[in-house]
Design brief:
single chain; alpha/beta; Rossmann fold; Helicase, Ruva Protein, domain 3; Ribosomal Protein S5, domain 2; 3 domains
Length: 511
């Protein structure tokens, strides 16, 4: 009990300029999380004693969730403690064991407070989505008392059996996926999404942070080593495929090791009279890292029948999604290949049903589908694919194959569809637009309901793109098939109902 801090605290540095400077020094980008942290500190300036806010950083691996927690502690001048919750499945690891057990000890929370030595540290609960439960209890339920501002002023550990005040602790949690966090825990935290880095952001992060860190780690700071921007870009696009920068750091470390070996070899051969200067360009990257792991396929802009370009969103960023459709004589069925998930299969079926119900609009023979087999294939069959956002792409590919018209391949699109042709909103718009820009696609069709999301996307991503919001499939046809004129649906004639003239009836008096 005497080793646990009860009154000792560190004085917070609440100067906003200092906080902003510290966060910008440690991290490039991440504007939304930084803004939220600065707002929190601004409130502390006014209130002085504020009930603890629990922030939860959710994002893919390597985007800086853990390091952002360290930066917050450094900016505030508080002690920093990290608790890893990955694989924790025993409730006693949070609350501690009762003293009657042999080898009993306090839980992770009290142990961390003892380690911090103050009552107001920053505690990072890492990988909170990786907790599980078994016969020994549910640790996520024990975390409710820790993270609930209404309860954590009297946290009771089974070992010390005395209420301990955690209300002055700033808790920060991290997770890779939001849906793995139990709902009661989500309700007690403010979720802040950390998206994957864009290509230009990765280049800046490498130049400002990673390269200097690796040069120092490999004893190369005093050597004249320069990395060209084109070389960094080549590593990002051809040797890594990730949302964060962990693999980028590994590849840069590999290059530094090879440079260090060359320097040592020259010194051993007494050839070190010349200055040790290295310029790492694209040729050197391929020499050091050998064959690229991910080869960039150039997008073909040639218009083809039955081939349309869509946009997909994965955990490592945006990608182009080609959809190929072939019509063959045979049994009347729809064949789907390319490792499609259930949602995408249903989306393909909905696309076919829409096309069949609108044959007159697109000038298709109503009897065309008799004795025809339609085959839809999404290339890169080894990669599983799922989601509804390829609905409009599959619809356009079908129309192209059925009408025997070449589709414009300089247009990419994304959107879920309904059987009435309505285009529904999608997710990952920022990453999808970036994929289109990376592949020199000039026109992008997006759902009308996603138009409001464009305000949150940087001008650097939107520049050079002709982004067209569409409300239904018919709006997309002129951009894909300029020669097709959609015929309006024939208006149904409503029969006029003649009402018989009312007979004049004498009013009967009620007796």
């Amino acid at each position: 009990l005497t080793e646990i801090p009860w009154l000792k605290r560190t004085k917070d540095n609440l100067q906003l300029k200092h906080v902003i400077k510290t966060l910008d020094e440690d991290h490039y980008g991440l504007e939304k999380p930084k803004e939220r942290i600065v707002e929190h500190i601004a409130v502390l300036n006014l209130v002085k004693q504020m009930r603890g806010q629990i922030l939860c950083f959710v994002g893919p691996p390597g985007v800086g969730k853990t390091s952002l927690g360290k930066s917050i502690a450094r900016a505030l001048g508080r002690n920093f403690i990290r608790i890893s919750l990955g694989g924790v499945r025993d409730e006693a690891e949070i609350r501690g064991h009762r003293r009657t057990y042999i080898g009993s000890m306090p839980g992770k929370i009290i142990h961390s407070m003892k380690k911090a030595g103050t009552v107001n540290p920053v505690i990072l609960l890492d990988e909170i989505d990786k907790m599980s439960m078994d016969f020994r209890g549910d640790p996520s339920s024990a975390m409710l008392e820790v993270l609930d501002p209404e309860q954590n002023h009297a946290f009771n550990d089974h070992y010390i059996e005395i209420d301990y005040d955690l209300s002055q602790v700033m808790f920060i949690t991290t997770a890779n996926v939001r849906y793995n966090i139990p709902l009661p825990l989500q309700d007690r935290m403010e979720i802040i999404e950390l998206p994957g880095y864009l290509e230009h952001e990765k280049i800046e992060i490498a130049k400002r942070h990673i390269i200097l860190k690796q040069l120092e780690a490999h004893g190369l700071l005093d050597k004249k080593i320069q990395f060209k921007d084109a070389a960094i870009k080549k590593i990002i696009t051809e040797y890594t495929r990730e949302a964060g920068v962990r693999n980028l750091e590994r590849e840069l470390a590999s290059i530094c090791r090879k440079i260090a070996r060359e320097i040592v070899d020259k010194e051993a051969d007494k050839k070190a009279k010349t200055k040790n200067s290295f310029i790492v360009d694209e040729t050197k990257v391929e020499e050091f890292l050998k064959v690229p792991r991910y080869r960039m396929r150039k997008h073909s802009k040639a218009n083809r029948i039955g081939s349309v370009t869509g946009l997909a969103w994965t955990s490592v960023g945006g990608e182009l999604l080609s959809v190929d459709v072939t019509i063959m004589s045979g049994s009347e069925k729809l064949t789907l290949t390319g490792q499609l998930g259930n949602v995408m299969k249903e989306s393909a079926q909905a696309s076919l049903s829409y096309v069949r119900s609108c044959v007159k609009k697109f000038g298709i023979d109503p009897h065309f589908f008799k004795g025809k087999e339609i085959h839809i294939h999404l290339p890169e069959g080894a990669i599983p694919k799922d989601g509804p956002s390829a609905g409009i792409t599959m619809t356009m590919a079908m129309i192209s194959a059925i009408t025997n018209r070449a589709a414009s391949n300089d247009v990419a699109m994304t959107g879920e569809i309904t059987l009435r042709g309505k285009v529904l909103p999608i997710g990952g718009l920022n990453e999808k637009l970036l994929a289109a820009k990376r592949n020199d696609i000039s026109t992008v069709l997006i759902p009308k309901d996603n138009e409001i999301d464009l305000k949150e996307i940087s001008d650097q991503v939107k520049s050079g793109l002709n982004i067209i919001p569409i409300d239904n499939i018919e709006d997309a046809v002129p951009y894909i098939f300029p020669d097709i004129k959609v015929k309006p649906a024939a208006a149904k004639k409503t029969a006029s109902i003649k009402t018989a003239p009312k007979k004049k009836t004498s009013k009967k008096k009620l007796k």
